[in-house]
Amino acid sequence: MPAELSPIDKAKFAAARRAVEYVEDGMRLGLGTGSTAAWMVRLLGEMVREEGLRITGVPTSTRTADLAREVGITVIGLDEAKWLDLTIDGADEFDPQLNLIKGGGGALLQEKIVATASDQMIVIADAAKEVAQLGAFPLPVEVIPFGWQTSRALIEETLVSLDVLGRETTLRMNGERPFVTDEGNYIVDLHLNRIGNARQLALVLNQIPGVVENGLFIDICDVVIVGQGDGRVEIR
Ligand code: 5RP
């Protein structure tokens, strides 16, 4: 473990270190996005350089692609890989059913496509991400820029009809300008506090014109590796 890590980084590192034990020679891997996933990519890079591990990686963002190449991982696109053995990614929240909120880093669209195209998805997270019910973390919804205000209004109407607790929505910003995803879209964050029926919400949101994808990952994750501040891990 690198010296001088904060407890939160120790937890992220510990989860990543355990996750790479699932990686076998020759695997095609989905590489997640975020600070926890970045530890995993660096560790895989070490295994490639020092142990001769042969893997190909499909990154879920340009950030991850840049890091993967930098540490020596062979990067290919999903269409070239076609199907993946395993995806390892972070999450913003996970519940007892291993349903997730993702997209805090804005990469939810590629993350969901890549995870869904994998035999297995392992999530790596620090213990603060574990919740009894999803929703305290704002739910990211990716919308196309054309008519985004209309899409946002339709999302708000949908929230009223679903009788959810919190209904505030915010356009994610990058300084003075809207945050733009790798796919050229915007993100509307939904401040819901508590999501009663995540499966229903995930389906309904994706019916709204202009909505490309939402950050609810339902029945996609197989295992969560939870890192603790003292370097221990637990498996869910
Ligand atoms: C990016 C994500 C990340 O996996 C999520 O935001 C967790 O990030 P971190 O590991 O930095 O806490 O979904 O879109």
From TrEMBL:
<feature type="binding site">
    <location>
        <position position="129"/>
    </location>
    <ligand>
        <name>substrate</name>
    </ligand>
</feature>
<dbReference type="GO" id="GO:0005829">
    <property type="term" value="C:cytosol"/>
</dbReference>
<keyword id="KW-0413">Isomerase</keyword>
<dbReference type="GO" id="GO:0006014">
    <property type="term" value="P:D-ribose metabolic process"/>
</dbReference>
<feature type="binding site">
    <location>
        <begin position="33"/>
        <end position="36"/>
    </location>
    <ligand>
        <name>substrate</name>
    </ligand>
</feature>
<comment type="subunit">
    <text>Homodimer.</text>
</comment>
<dbReference type="Pfam" id="PF06026">
    <property type="entry name" value="Rib_5-P_isom_A"/>
</dbReference>
<feature type="binding site">
    <location>
        <begin position="89"/>
        <end position="92"/>
    </location>
    <ligand>
        <name>substrate</name>
    </ligand>
</feature>
<comment type="function">
    <text>Catalyzes the reversible conversion of ribose-5-phosphate to ribulose 5-phosphate.</text>
</comment>
<comment type="similarity">
    <text>Belongs to the ribose 5-phosphate isomerase family.</text>
</comment>
<dbReference type="InterPro" id="IPR020672">
    <property type="entry name" value="Ribose5P_isomerase_typA_subgr"/>
</dbReference>
<feature type="active site" description="Proton acceptor">
    <location>
        <position position="111"/>
    </location>
</feature>
<feature type="binding site">
    <location>
        <begin position="102"/>
        <end position="105"/>
    </location>
    <ligand>
        <name>substrate</name>
    </ligand>
</feature>
<comment type="pathway">
    <text>Carbohydrate degradation; pentose phosphate pathway; D-ribose 5-phosphate from D-ribulose 5-phosphate (non-oxidative stage): step 1/1.</text>
</comment>
<dbReference type="InterPro" id="IPR037171">
    <property type="entry name" value="NagB/RpiA_transferase-like"/>
</dbReference>
<dbReference type="InterPro" id="IPR004788">
    <property type="entry name" value="Ribose5P_isomerase_type_A"/>
</dbReference>
<dbReference type="GO" id="GO:0004751">
    <property type="term" value="F:ribose-5-phosphate isomerase activity"/>
</dbReference>
<dbReference type="GO" id="GO:0009052">
    <property type="term" value="P:pentose-phosphate shunt, non-oxidative branch"/>
</dbReference>
<protein>
    <recommendedName>
        <fullName>Ribose-5-phosphate isomerase A</fullName>
        <ecNumber>5.3.1.6</ecNumber>
    </recommendedName>
</protein>
